[in-house]
Structure prediction request, 259 residues.
Amino acid sequence: MRIDLNCDVGELEGSANLDAELMRLISSANIACGAHAGNPALMRRTIALALEHGVAIGAHPGYDDRAHFGRRPLNLPADTLRDSLLRQLDSLAEAVAQQGGQLRHIKPHGALYNQAGADAELAARLAQWVKAFDPALILVGGAGGALLQAGRAIGLNVASEGFADRRYRDDGQLLSRQQPGAVLSDPDDALKQARALITGQPIISDTHKPLRLAIDTLCLHGDSPQALNFAQIIHHWLQQSGVQLAPLMPPQRPLRPIR
Prediction:
């Protein structure tokens, strides 16, 4: 058995030590692209950490809404959203190429991720924009959601994601952060959910119903106070259980040229 363990990083100023510790425990990094969080210097530092530790690099673009950390749902005109997304991808891809790395995947952030998981029209647009940018990128989306369906429909490589630190609704969507218990804080709860997701067992929804999700990659939120603790506990369980930690692997293709 193998699994990709990913984490959202490069989001917080002064998080160099935390990001460095997380990089030792994960196989893929979703790096903020300067909209909901991050900046060019932070991107370069996080890319260097990922390359140092052999961690696969992915883009983590979100709404340009720092006041709400990209977690407030927005309904932007398609052209505005496309331009923002491509600007973020260009910025990160160029920084990765300058350091001799390769961008492997893209995972939308926050509200954009959640909206694309439930809105087929938005999901189709995002998938088309990703394909136009780089058709070899892996598109990461919530298990069973519209974004994965849209990516598959146009021939993109997709990866189904589950969360160790978030509570789910009965329909497989994440419980809103506005609801009590939406973010898991107990290490035992996070490990139990991680084990179930990785081994294909049912997790428990917010209404205490069994929910089974098939995943390729497991996520931890790097801005969570429990991020490092959860990563250490899950990483230790993976080692003890003989589960191989392995990044998502797209088909081989040339490095993206620096623009």
Summary: The two ends are 39 Å apart (CA to CA). The longest helix spans residues 78-98. The longest strand covers residues 2-9.
